[in-house]
Predict the structure.
Amino acid sequence: MTTPSRGAAAGHVPRQRPDTAAGDVPQARGNTAAGDVPQARREVGAGPELAFADWLGLREAADAAARAVDLVAPVRRHLAGVDRVVVHDLGAGTGSMGRWLAPRLPGPQHWVLYDRDADLLVRARAGMVDRAGDGTPVTVETRLRDITRLTAADLADATLVTASALLDMLTGEELHRVVAACADAGCPALFTISVIGRVRFSPADPLDGEIAEAFNDHQRRTVDGRTPLGPDAVEVCVAAFERRGVPVTVWPSPWRLGANQADLVAEWFAGWLAAACEQRPELVGRVRAYAARRRAQLAAGQLDVVVEHRDILAGYTGYGITGGG
Ligand SMILES: C[S@@+](CC[C@H](N)C(=O)[O-])C[C@H]1O[C@@H](n2cnc3c(N)ncnc32)[C@H](O)[C@@H]1O
């Protein structure tokens, strides 16, 4: 659960550069049309977008703090007897999921990092940790692929499939294919940090709800013939696994942001507002005043934001977890 959308995924902000798409791998810019948001950002008083890799770097600590460690415990127990753990990470970006999860699992481990962006994969490989939680080696390879075209055969050697801040970028059809590949491979999946379209500010403001609604509609809008699931991705994913008889546990993984993450709040907020105004241009006038109020609160250390996400664990049973979402 996470863009305003650059890659939204993550329902959060910055966009990927069109030129980072690889060969015939379809480009996914999340739900933000190229060229539109920068103007919308200007309208809400925001500066230029960060480069996509910088955006991923900015949010990495918040994602790490938010992911549901409760869902790692059953995975760790399950992997305890495995000789060599093989994790396939879908939409790896700069590799934040591997840096977070590998030290929490037993080894030895081999990570297969997928993305359609070759530059990000170079960074992911370079930034991967080299030791598992028990001190055994972690090895890594990268695959420049469209993850929505993976099959069970691609995942045949996986002991676990992971993703983070990815699902909201996918269409229903694409997500069903990903779920089918995992289920047909008989492989458990840990999909973290998926936005669900809910944001809470403290203090609250009468305009919060209207902007959130416009933002959510922006996430689901059709661009270049694709209609991403946006905040509906978790529900669709859970239903798709359950239809295939795969048990699913859902756990909250909210970003809890305040004065000590002011840079992240400011960047996230700029993308959130810009997307909302792009979706409903009639909001622009009111949003300008709202943005000024919110930025003053942030500068004074008087603004807290909770961005709701969900983590999904599919394929494990009998660990006494009964949902959390
Ligand atoms: C928001 S980023 C998250 C990256 C990383 N998982 C993280 O948590 O920092 C989403 C990533 O998914 C990749 N991605 C989106 N759709 C994809 C597709 N169809 N095939 C391959 N990669 C894709 C993007 O290139 C991007 O790096």
In short: The first strand starts at residue 85 and ends at 90. Residues 7, 9-10, 16, 28, 56, 63, 91-93, 96-97, 114-117, 120, 146-148, 164-166, 169 surround S-adenosylmethionine (CB under 6 Å). The longest helix spans residues 262-279. The domain at 18-33+49-197+227-256+308-314 is CATH 3.40.50.150 (Rossmann fold).
